[in-house]
Amino acid sequence: MRQRPPPHPVGDATVKGPALFPAKGFPPDLAVPFAAFWAAYPRRVPNPRAVAALAFAKAVKQGATTDQLIAAASAYAAQMKAKGTVEEFIVHASTFLRQQRFLDYLETTEEAPPAPAEPVHDLWPELLAHMDASDFRAWIGRCEVASRDGNALVLAAPSTFIAARIRQDFVQLLQRVLECRVTVTVETAR
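The chain above was modelled as a monomer; its predicted structure follows.
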């Protein structure tokens, strides 16, 4: 039976292989931020702290800020808790950092696209309280008001498909709100 050699204490000069940190050791300016990251990261056993510290230092060296890494660890922990993820399925902290999975948990600073402007159409002011702007834009907003008098409205749709959809789903609403007879025609090619 083969016996294992006795374990070497960390820092023992006889340990072979590359050191996790150069002779200077772990960068002192990262000690406090790494401790905050480690505290925020979800619990997992085993989860080698020294390997995670190395990955943390490399991530910072590659451009991630310590605040981003801490925020990402907190967001990951919250997601794992919300999902009820079993400890063994939580990713090692070093993997989370090395594979840049932390990027998935950073809040984007991009602004949301601006909301579409109100539809510009002769009928929109009268219909805005009665229908959704996206439905108006998709169907009625594509039509031109061919004619309108007190008793009748003629809409010219750009295609038979749009004309059929307006007849099917919107003519009754238009007649009720506008209090006139509504006819939908198909615009002839010019």
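The CA atoms of residues 11 and 23 lie 10 Å apart.
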